């Protein structure tokens, strides 16, 4: 039977740890065996802990996949992921609403680069928190957080690493905004009258102010949200919940929301002292703090190798996000309600894929260590296809609730044809997210790259782009069929 897969290669050939402390897939002389182990869609790793359980006589027990044994896992995925995805949707809506208000603040109007930096910073910063949640979820499920000294070392090391990553990505984002400022028109059309009444700033002092704002906001957000995510994972472990089902979506939505709040607050303060040495002083203090965190991370054996890993997908995601920005810029004014709908059709499938990626990565690590994840002990582990089906069915009601709420509150008038087509394209986006997550995770694992560090940034950026392209296609088809989406909320002037 397909589900009755033994892991003799995993049990009989211990694998040496990689430099980052994870374990690479074993390589036998038989290439076909190795390919089966690594590239079977993660199935052997997912089923491995249960399939390799032995009784006291040393004989291999049969893998039990009956409905009775699977039900606790299925129920756990539904109960843990459904409220999390609903919470993530609310967070995405709040972020979109907050962005609309922040974009009209004095600092954003006077300094063009500040509004340009927001999408890049939010994308990069959200990926950092998702990577953190995935790493800690794996560490929790393989038991590394059960020992208090090890837990303290892992958490402090990851928080210090997060400060280094936040400083680097925010400075790069500030540099990209400087380049974009030379190309992109200086004012948004809806803000033109306001712009004419405000004094505009540019030049090197402005760049320093933007860099100081970005680095301060991201570092404060990393400190606050990183600590919260660490506490959340530890709490999930204490209460017997699987952090892979809970942490990634929360990290994604809260990362955007908290970072945007800090960006607005810090920029509003620093714009008042733009022509003084204060922004430069703030930037230097942030850099010195980041250097000290980097030195601590290098001395922490639990996380030291991570200093040099995971940078390429972060900046690759930034390139993909630039394409997403172009799509949004082209169609946000062409279609009524596009921005509001894009937040969910892009963000929610990405959150589902993050859950699946984190689960797959945990099972791959557990199988490589020949361990049974504690959260799944005593019941059969669902196959990847079953997990994909569950996540799709869990996400669909969240999308329907979202459409019903925005229609019921009068935010958008949605014809029935548009609702039907948007649900269809939403299911397509979720299915694409799950398939990409599965393929990307297994591809990275087969290349000895830790999915917890490399998968989520690329996956998140791809889903933003795919989700918005599918939404454009939905609007085009509905328009050709004669239906139209109308905005019912009065526009702010």
Automatic annotation (TrEMBL):
It is found in: Membrane. The keyword Protein biosynthesis does not apply. Keywords: Ion transport, Magnesium, Membrane, Transmembrane, Transmembrane helix, Transport. Its main location: membrane. One of its GO terms (cellular component) is plasma membrane. It is a multi-pass membrane protein. PANTHER family: DIVALENT CATION TRANSPORTER SOLUTE CARRIER FAMILY 41 (PTHR16228), SLC41A_MGTE INTEGRAL MEMBRANE DOMAIN-CONTAINING PROTEIN (PTHR16228:SF7). This is Solute carrier family 41 member 1. The lineage of its organism: Eukaryota, Fungi, Dikarya, Basidiomycota, Agaricomycotina.
């Amino acid at each position: 039977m397909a589900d009755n897969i033994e892991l003799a290669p995993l049990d009989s050939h211990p694998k040496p740890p990689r430099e980052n402390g994870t374990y690479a897939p074993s390589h036998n002389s038989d290439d076909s065996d190795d390919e089966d182990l690594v590239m079977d869609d993660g199935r052997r790793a997912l089923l491995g802990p249960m399939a390799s359980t032995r009784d006291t006589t040393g004989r291999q027990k049969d893998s039990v996949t009956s409905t009775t044994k699977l039900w606790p896992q299925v129920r756990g995925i539904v109960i843990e992921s459904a409220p999390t995805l609903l919470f993530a949707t609310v967070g995405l809506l709040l972020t979109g609403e907050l962005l609309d208000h922040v974009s009209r603040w004095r600092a954003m109007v006077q300094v063009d680069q500040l509004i340009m930096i927001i999408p890049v910073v939010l994308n990069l910063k959200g990926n950092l928190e998702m990577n953190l949640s995935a790493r800690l979820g794996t560490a929790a499920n393989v038991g590394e957080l059960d020992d208090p000294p090890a837990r303290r070392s892992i958490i402090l090391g990851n928080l210090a690493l997060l400060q280094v990553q936040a400083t680097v990505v925010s400075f790069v984002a500030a540099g990209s905004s400087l380049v974009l400022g030379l190309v992109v028109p200086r004012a948004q059309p809806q803000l033109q009258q306001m712009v004419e009444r405000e004094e505009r700033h540019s030049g090197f002092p402005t760049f320093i102010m933007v860099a100081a704002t970005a680095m301060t906001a991201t570092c404060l957000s990393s400190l606050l949200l990183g600590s919260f995510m660490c506490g959340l994972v530890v709490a999930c472990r204490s209460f017997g919940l699987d952090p892979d089902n809970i942490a990634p979506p929360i990290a994604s939505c809260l990362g955007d929301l908290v970072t945007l709040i800090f960006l607005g607050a810090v920029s509003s303060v620093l714009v008042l002292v733009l022509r003084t040495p204060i922004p430069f002083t703030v930037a230097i203090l942030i850099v010195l703090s980041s250097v000290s965190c980097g030195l601590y991370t290098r001395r922490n054996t639990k996380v030291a190798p991570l200093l040099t890993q995971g940078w390429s997908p972060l900046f690759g995601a930034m390139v993909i996000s630039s394409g997403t920005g172009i799509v949004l810029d082209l169609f946000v004014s062409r279609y009524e309600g596009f921005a509001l709908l894009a937040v969910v059709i892009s963000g929610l499938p990405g959150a589902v894929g993050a859950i699946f990626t984190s689960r797959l990565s945990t099972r791959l690590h557990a199988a490589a260590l020949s361990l049974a994840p504690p959260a799944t002990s005593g019941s059969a582990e669902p196959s990847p296809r079953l997990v994909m089906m569950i996540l799709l069915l869990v996400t669909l009601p969240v999308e329907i609730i979202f459409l019903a709420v925005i229609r019921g509150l009068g935010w958008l008038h949605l014809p029935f044809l548009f609702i039907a087509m948007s649900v269809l394209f939403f299911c397509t986006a979720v299915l694409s997210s799950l398939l990409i997550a599965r393929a990307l995770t297994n591809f990275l694992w087969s290349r000895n790259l830790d999915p917890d560090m490399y998968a989520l940034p690329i996956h998140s950026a791809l889903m933003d782009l795919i989700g918005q392209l599918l939404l454009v296609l939905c609007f085009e088809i509905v328009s050709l069929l004669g239906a139209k989406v109308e905005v019912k909320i009065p526009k702010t002037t």
